Every structure is written in structure tokens, then in C-alpha cells.
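Methods: example folding runs. The two proteins below were folded one after another, and each record is reproduced exactly as written to the output file, sequence line first and C-alpha cell line second.
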Amino acid sequence: MPPKRKHTSYTFQQKLEIVSRIRNGETQAKVSREQGIPESTLRGWLKDEGKIRDFTDELDQPEGMARKRARTAQDPVVDRALYSWFVEKRADGTPISGPILQSQATQIAQTLHGDSNTLLCSEGWLARWKRRHGIRSVRITGEIRSADVEAAEAFLPQLQAIVEEEDLVADQIYNADETGLFYRMTSPSTLAERSDPLGASGHKLRKDRVTALVGTNWSGTHKLKPLVIGKFAKPRCFHHVPMDTLPVTYRHTKNSWMTSGIFQEWFHHEFVPSVRAHLLRQGLPVKAILLLDNCPAHPPKESLVSRDGRIRVVYLPPNTTSRIQPMDQGIISVFKRRYRREMMSDHASDVRSIEAYLKALTLKDVVHLMGRAWNGVTQVGIQATWSKALGDPWGHDADTSTDTFLGFTDEDIEASREHLERLVPSAPTTLKAFINEWAAVDDDCPAYAPTSSDDHLADAMQDEEEPEEPEDLAPPPAKVPSLTTALECAQTLITLFESTGEVLEVTKMQTVLQRLKKDLYDSKKQSSIQDFFKRC
């Protein structure tokens, strides 16, 4: 039996020295004989030379500190020049992709080294370069790069002057904004096994759309009832449902877009009465302002004033909403994420496939999911977002800070969203990433009719699918059960929960049972003598 071969370990530096000998002309056979290293191992080291360089030159730290590994570049000069170019372009908001980086690195290397350039800008090199400099891939969203920073800075003193002149408090300052929602669309990504030949295949994305208008006051004590705009005047799913019992206000247009008429009607018949009732409950003077962006569907401010003139609209400067409008700084984003969570949770308790579930999802189901999602946006998160977007117009921090408001940066937006996420039920990191990507599918969904200057909305409309099927083709709603039938169902459920030992559910159903009995008793009328005779 041959003796067992002794295994020798080599440091990254030793591997790099041996590779350098071969690069300088020595044969692999000679190095193999001298070092006792198989030629196949040497070929592997030559192939992984770039990776070995990334793990070379460990830095000696002072005693008591952990040794930190330095990831060095094959060509430090090109590495630094490319990173400087990258930082400069990102500061201008230029989108940068992997192929662009590889092309630029090749150009820099040829300029510096000419024909002697040996830098190979492969996919592996690109991955190592991004890892060294902490570069990650992000999805481009929003319009913050094209915002008018000067106008955003100038608005804060104007708002402070309005607050001081009218003696307003946080409960009296509101903001509302529209957003589009593809309420039946599934996530564009999924997990799949490597061996699955259909791993990247899926179903046709459903682009059934509604527009939602949401808003709150600065203090977060009053979240306005969402306004939802669909395509149909009287959807069958609402046939037996009193519209005032829904968690939203429902309106309709041909394209599910906000219009000036709908907004003006909402302001006078929904917003003003709701704000007046809230301020009276709080014991505050009935006066308020509503901050709005310059959406084409918003009427002139002269038509958005209450009869007594004490509740009115203040328009934000053009091209500043992506920086200073509170609804755009994370509140709408969290609302959509919570809608996706509610939708996932609802489907998880359903025995049907995802396709069958989405096909059966009605507007009534959607508005209830939206209602639960809007209820989940917390007061603390709302306050934090408002203060970050517009500073403190009451001057409470004037003595502790001399910083001027410079508008929202990308980092501010991300920090605000993370803060809001911490205030909702926690989820695994992978689930959060999944929800975030899913919630972004309708970021460019139009909420109003695009004008000639709204190129991004026009492009979004070109990608839209044909209108959804007419409402009269939808399945007819179930017949409203009688009180007697409902009473029997409640008693059956109580028996079921009693057998499974679910005490809390039994208590809830007992409450429902008592209400049904009362309604049934009240519905019965005492017969009179006239009921026994017929008119001839």
C-alpha cells in the first residue's frame, strides 16, 4: 500500500508567488517537481488568479484587534479611476449598468497602458469590483433627480408664514395624493429549483387597475377615508352592499383616472365634512389647509375652498412633490406593501390556485383589503414622515439646529421607508425584499389622464393591456340570505367552535347570534284584524 500523501496548505501570498513564476516563463512541470504540487492544481491556481489577488496581502492590525483582509485590485490605477468616474456619473443621476462599467474600464485601461493592457474586464472582474466598493444594483423609481431643489427649499418659509398667520397646529395641516394600483397583479419574481425547466415561466400579468386617493393630517390623528376610482358605475359585487358601509369612498371613470370633477366633489362632500368633524372632536377651531401637488386633475385653488373660506388648498411648487410631499415619502409605499401582505394572507387561507383566486377577486374584496392596509399605517410613522419632508414650521427646533432644509435625498427616502417598515408587523428579510419588489410594480401606474408633457405616463399607458372584461360578464352576486338562514348558520358555527375548543371564536359568534335574534324579532310585525280580510 503506497504511503499516504502529505497535504500541504499554501497561503494566498504563496499561491500568488508560484503563479507569478509560471507567468514569468517557468514551466508548470518544473514548478510541480520543485514544489511537489500537481500540475492540475497549478492550472486551477492560474485560472483563479484574479480571485487569489482579491484575498492577498492580509493587513496586520494592532494587537487585540481582529485581522482584516484587504481586497486589492489587479490594476489599482484603473480601479481608482473607474470608481471616480462612477461616483461622478451617479452624482449627476446617470443610470450605470454592468456593461457600461466594463466598457469604461476597458477604455481607461487602454488610455493608461496602450497596447500593453492586460486587464480582462470579465463578469468575474465586474463582480469583484462591485464587491470591493460596495456597489449594488437598485431599481430606478420616482422623479427626485428632476425635482426643483431651490423651489423646495423656498417653500418651507412660505409654509411657516401660513402657519403663523392662521395659527395652525399639526391637526389642521393635511396632504393627499393619488396613486395607481394593479390590484390583481402578482409578483414579477419567484423562487424556483435549478432543475425546474419552467422555473422562469408564469402566468399573464393582470393589469386590472384602480386609482386610490389617500391622505392624512400632520399629527397622524386623522387618516382620511380613501377614495377609490374604478371603471364601473355599479359593479355587481356592490349590488346588495350599502356604499356608506365600505371602508372607502367609491367613484368611477372610464379609465379609472382621477378627474377635476371627481376631485372637486370629493373635496366639498368628503374632505371638508370629515375635517370639520375631526376638528370639532378635538376641540380645535374649524380651519385647515390641504397641501396638494400640481396634478392636471386638481382644479384651481379658487374652487377648492369651503363655503366659509376656513378650509382651503395650498399648492406645492411645481416639480417638488418627490422631495417635500409627505405622501410620496413612504406613506403610499407602505400602504401598497401592506395591501400586498393582506392579499398574500388572504390567498394563503384560500384552497384555490393563485389564478383561480385572482380571477374571483372582486372590487368588494379589493376595497376591504385596501381598508385593512390603510388602517395598518401608523400614526408614529406618519408624524416622522411629515416632519422629515417639511421640517418644523412652528420653529420648535430653531434654537437647537441651524441647518436649513435642503430637500429629500435618496438616503432620506430609504431611511423613512425603513422607519415605517419597523412600525408594521415584522417579516423575514427575504419576505420584505419580495414584498418591496412586488409593491413597486405599479409605481409608474398613471392616476390621471396624461398630458403632452407627461412622457412617463404616456409610456406607461402604452404598456397597458386591453380593458378588463365588462362588468356584466362577471358572475352574478350571491343572493342575500334571510335572517332565519343567517341565524341557523351562526348556530352551526357556534357548535363547530365549541367542538374544537376555540373559546374566543365562540364568544364572537354568540355576539353575532344575539344581534341576529334581535334583528329577527324587530322585523316581525304584529298582525291586525285587517290582515285577515281581502278587499273585493
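Second run, written to the same file directly after the first:
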Amino acid sequence: MRKVPALLCVCLLTCNLASAQENATEVKHQSRSRDKSFSAAAVAEARGEAVESTPAGKLPVRRVVLYKNGVGYFEHLGRVRGSQDVHIDFTSAQLNDVLKSLTVLDLAGGRITGVDYNSEAPLARRLATLRLALGEKPSVSEFLGALRGARLEVRGASGTALAGKLLSVEKKNHFSANGTVVTDEISLVTDSGEIRTTELTPATSVRIAEKEMQIEVGRYLGLIASSRDQDLRRMTVSSAGTGDRNLYVSYISEVPLWKTTYRIVLPTKADKRPLLQGWAIVDNTVGEDWNDVELSLVAGAPHSFIQELSQAYYGRRPVVALPHSVALSPQTHGATLEPGNSQLNGEVTDPSGAAIANATVKVIDQNGQLVAQTSTDEDGEYEFDNVPVGNYRIEIESSGFQSYAASNFQTQAGSNTFNGQLRLGAATEAIEVSAGPVSGRKVGNLARLRAGVAGGALHAPGAGLPLRESMGIAGKTDRLERADIYNRGEGQEAAAQGGELGDLFEYKLRERVTIHKNQSALVPIVQTDINADRVSLWSESLGMARPLRALWVNNASALTLDSGSFSVLDDNTFAGEGLVETIKPGERRLLSYATDLGLLVDAKSESQQQQVTRVRINRGMMTTTSELREKKTYTVRNEDTTSRVVVIEHPARPDFKLDENGPQPEEKASGLYRFRLSIDPKKTEKLVINETRPNYAAYSLSSITNDQVDLFLRQKSINPEIEKALRAIAAKKSEVADLTAQVQSLQKAIDQIFADQGRLRENMKALKGSAEEKVLLQRYTRQLDEEETQLDGLRKRMKDTEARRDNANSEIAKMIAELDIDTAL
């Protein structure tokens, strides 16, 4: 049986050599061609094959499908006999996913009688059953404080013994010339009634003299020790039947994201196409080995979630106080519409129990959002107020210590306590724990995790040997022509079979794979020729005059190329690297990988004033269309001795339109035009792009004046035909304005006569009938009669003027309604 090796990246140049295949160190594979995508169970049943017997009741993994969203699908298949029980080992982190996705089938007529797994109550709840009021990580002072009242024997460095019942453990400050020293002091009450105090030093020994208390401490330490074993969960599947049968189990589990990385080998001959080789980095962090499994890698992210089904939940019961004088019945209240807040506090210490000041404590919700952050005080204590009730991840960091993180910490309404202990170490080391029943586990160097190694060595053949010797070609590469490296890799069959999987894409490895637990592997998934043009790519967004060396790749294969990193080998030498997003079959994409030092690009913009290009008059509105013209000139200088093809990215603005008579783009991307420009050695070329943007302005014809018409003429926004029509409307508007002024003047004269008549009538009322007054009355009467005659004339003139004005307004309305012009200037 042979295993697929996790090859190092540099194997690209050597893995296809015939000499390497003949002399390579023995690797383990079990070749099994699989033309169709059946599960392990389906294949066995379809062919009537007998799956190998299940060793010692263990059901092995036969198929693994890894998804890009961090979920893996696992199939176990094994042989059982009679009413045999089989087991599968998981970690606690896997158990929640397993419980909500587990499928168990007896494939030969038997029946599944049950599935059992070991479940543990949360450690905090189990500790609460003890008489000792201790948390999960007490300091020495906290431990001794919990023994208050117990009989102890304390022996100091000098050998002096002190016996009695524990009264207290207190911190004391001692002042000296060197500053303040804080020590712990223990106080005992002796049999004679004396209170004796002694200092706790590293040389002080404390013995518990009471047997019952020794048993209680033993129980406490046993619970703490048992929590370390909780990360392993064993699930037992019980079946009932007769004879030999195949048993099938499938489930999903959280796994590390598989990563994709590519190599693009550019040919040395012009008639050859570039070679694309793709690799997948796979990490096995589940509870068992993947021995001889079918491995599929799916480029997609089906929806998945976490539900803590494995955690034991307890209902909360109210605490009702005993009545004092009046018997009160418990009260019920309405449910809360919004969750309440809680308080969170605790302290951060080192392994010796000393407080760590200025440590950073973060509270992060299940969506990865920072909820609160603070620092510990000089006593290593911290406190958060008004933290919403919920499930959180708590991270603690301090300079000179390993970082500490605890997930699944559930806060309740009221006060909550979480204490953290930091170990000495580098900042890149981390301790990851679960606040639930999962014990702490070493994460290891974070840089190695980011690199996908996860603490395990790559499955390299001949590990520890020089590269050529490990590949079995010791020195032979030196005798090969450099072009042979590319040619030997050309035409090789891909190690994985690609195909659509619903809306997703699957890479199914042609051979079975073995990856031990807590190890990682580099497995080949793509080997195909691609269409690619070598270009230089320049975009103003880069902020530099030098363009990028790039490949304009056309995915001519039937494979979906998943997103990841890529490296380029040109002339059998490393030329650069970059990142690529997912490329579908037939899709074209630019991949940049280096800076082109042989080209310089400069861009300059010019714009012209707006000019009216079109006028439309309809339904009393005049709409003008003006045009803003912009010109952008790209100047490219080629200082190299070889020709260049430059792709210039020009912004595609939604309001601007390219000049139909100017250069046209090779393609359009999201918000970008891409123009191709060829440049000979030691030459300078220019790319001139003209664009126009329309602007619109609307005017009401009923408010047009001669001054506006004059302005339109100065701006060359109207032609003589429109000017004549607008002048006619403006003239008629001036006529209406004159008539309106006449009407207002006549009305003013009428109002003045009315006021004078009112004055005369008041004077006539004041006359008493004397001869002189009679003469004055006659005079007033004649004056009133004359004014009445004037009023009749004014009213007649006003009526005539209003009629003329209304007629002019009607003519204006008719002129405007009948005016319909649409012309280009």
C-alpha cells in the first residue's frame, strides 16, 4: 500500500522526472481508479464487495470531503458481525456537529439499536458539589483560604512546626529601604487558644491534618485531572443482526480551511502553452488518522452552523426565601423582551499566583465582534459592566506571556467571574481553552498555524535528506537541459478529477490518501495547460509610474480554479507570485506577479467647457443638453530591449461615454476599461482616450425674458429659429407686462377718487345749514358729481385694458403650447 506524499512546493521542477519516479524513496499509495463519484458505502454495495473487517470494534474513515467554509464531511465504513458494537473517536469540538448530522446505516438488513457517547457535566457545576469553594485554577493563597477552619500543620524553613486550625490567609505589606514587599501570611488558632502567624515562603510546607479534608481535596484534584480527558469523546454504535454486514456512518465536522496554491510554468518556446499546477494544503486535526481514504476538496461554502447539543443544560429554578411572619406565594412575571446585562470580573495571574498588571482582556461575541476591552489593575483584577447576556470568547494578552483564550463562556444576568492564568513564553504562543467541558490544549506557534502546518511535519519523502537525494535523482538535474524541466511536466495527467457538484466544484483525488492526525499534507489537484499572454499592467490606482508584470490568463480547461496564491516560473527561474480569485472555465483574468522595471507610464487629463449640443422645446419647457468633454493621455516609455504589451486600466465612469472614433477597450471589468497598447524597444507610445458626459438644464418658457435670450445667444445655446420663437414669446410677455401696469395705474386712480369722496361726505355731514354752509354744500355736491363721471371713465378703461391683457395671455399660452422644437446644434 502506498500513501500520497505531501510534496514540498519546489517539487514542481522535479516531481515529473522519470529518474525521480524510478529512484524516489518508497511512498505509500493504494491506486484505485474511480471513474464515478460514489461514496465508499455505495461502491461497496454496488459491487457486492466485502469491506475489510472492523479491527477491535473501530470503524475506520473511508471518505473525506473538505469544504471551503471550514466543514468536512466524513464517511466511515466497516465490517461487523452479529450484534457487534463499534466505536468512533471524536474531540469535544467535533461532537456538536456530529450530533446534528450523524447518519448510521446497517447495509445488510440489520438494525441500529443505539448510539452512546460519554457526556460530562460542566466542570464548574461538578466543582460546586464539593465542600471546597474553589474554582478551576486557584492560587496557593486561594486554595489555603478555602481550607479555613481545617486543622493544619505548618512547617517553616527552620523546621519549626506550628499546628492549629486555619484562621485566615492574608497579604501583608512590608516596608524597607528597597521598597514595599507583599507577602502572604497564614494565621492559625492553636489548641491552647493562641493565634499564631507565620509567613508563607517557597520553603514553607503545609500539611492537612484532617482525614476528611484530605479526602475532599483528593476529590477536587481528581475532578481537575479528569477535565484533561474530556477532549476525547468516544461514540459507540450498537447494531443487531446476524452474520457479517457492512456498517456505514457519516457526519460533518469542523475542520481547518483547505488552502489552494498554484504554480505557473512559462514555456521557453513560443509554440508551447504555460503549464498550471495546483496544490491543496490539507490539515488533519480530527481525532484519528485518515488511512487510505478517498479525499475530495470542494470549492464552495454550504451553509453550516454550530449548535451546542453536546453540552448538558440545566434549568434555572428560583430561590424562594423562608417566610418570616406572612406566608407569601411565589410570584410569576412576564417574559423579557430584550436580554438583560451582566457584570464580568476576575483576575489574571501567572503560574505562581502573582497578579499580572496591565494585561489586556477582550470580550468577543460569536460573530467575532469585539464587545468590550479593558486592562487589569495593579492587583491583576479587571471588571466589565453592562455586558449583554450571551456566549463569548475571552482573550487575555500580556507582554512576556503566552496569550490565553477561552471560548464558550456563557454569562448570566448578574455577576460573573472568569479568572485567567498566563504562562511565561513568547507572544506568538497561545493557550486555547473552552469555558465549557473542554480542557485547555496547546495551540502552538501561531506562525506555523497560519502556514497550514498545524504542528505536524509535511509528508515529504526522504525527510531530512538534501532535496535531490530525497527525490532520488542525486545530481541528475544538473545533466538535464533546462527546457526538459518544462517538457517533462507537459502532458502529465492531473492527480485530481474535477467536476461540478451542484452549485459547487469538486476536486476528487484519483488515488487514496493517508494523512495522520495532527499532520498536514500538500496534495496535487490540478495539472493542465492554460492560455496566457505576457503583459504589463498599469492602473492609476497603483500610485506609481511602474506597471506590473502580469499574465492575461484564459482558463481553457474544464476545471474551476479555486482562489489562492500562485507562483510564476519564467525561464526555469522564480519570477514572482500573487493572488488569484476563483476562475470559472472559459473565464479570462489578469494575474500580476512582479514589477516591470523596463516601463514608465504617465497620465494627464484635460477637460473642455460645457457646450450645448441639443435643444428640445415641448409642453412649455425648454431642455438643453450640454456636453462635458474630457481627454486623458497615457504616455508609455519602453526602455527595455524587448517589445512590451501594456494593458492600461482606465476608469469606466457611468456618466461618461467613450468616443466612438477613438481607441476601444480590449475588455471591460467592474468599473474599468482595459486598453491594449504594443510598444517597441526604446520607444514611446501614447494612448489618447476621449470621453463625453451629457448635462441637462430645463427652463420654463412662461418665465423667459429677453435678457435670458441674450444670454443663450452669448453661450451659443440656441439657433436663430429658437431665438425668433423665444423673442416672440418675450415680446408678448412684455406687452402683458405693460397692460398689467396700466391696470394697476387705473386701479390706483380709482382708489384715490374713492378716498376723496369719503372725505367730502364727512365734511358734508358736519355742515349746520347756514347760508355760507349751503354754498359749501353745493360745491361739494358738484365735486362729487364730477368724480362719479371720472370713475365711470376709469372703470371702462380698466375693463378694456384687462380684456386686452387676458387676450395677450391667451396668445402666450397658445404660442407656448404650439411650440415644439427638437434640434441639434
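Comment on the second run: The chain has four domains: 9-119+232-305+463-515, 123-229, 530-570+584-702, 704-824.
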